[in-house]
Amino acid sequence: MSTESGEHHGYSPGERAILRAIEELNQREEELMATVEELTAALNQVKGDLEAQTGAITAEFTKLEGELTNKGIDPAELDSIKASLEGLDNAVKGIVVPTT
Asked: 21-43 burial, b if ≥16 CB within 10 A, otherwise e?
């Protein structure tokens, strides 16, 4: 016997209090779900940005390796940087954004 305005006719005061509490919980749940959806969208955007940036950095690094090789310079000294970039790339790819 609930109306859209949240009025509860025909219930005892205790039952009305319980129904109001349930309505408040339902509203809070809706607010929290909206917040979760906003955060999920933001995390997906950040992940996409990170993937784009690590991809661009990796591409530039690969060009640098090629330029060094073309100049007769052994790019092996860059191996630690390359390993770090690969680790970063793998970490970004491993980010899992929860779905709602």
From this structure: eeeeeeeeeeeeeeeeeeeeeee
User: Are the C-beta atoms of residues 39 and 97 closer than 8 Å to each other?
Assistant: no
Q: How far is CA 36 from CA 32, 48, 77, 84, in A?
A: 6, 18, 45, 32
Phi-psi region of 10 (alpha: psi -120 to 50; beta: other; left: phi over 0): left
Q: Which residues contact 61 (CB under 8 A, 6 or more apart)?
A: 78, 81, 82, 85
**pTM of the predicted model, to two decimals?**
0.65
Q: What is the mean pLDDT of residues 43-70?
A: 93
| Residue 41 Cα to chain centre, angstroms | 6
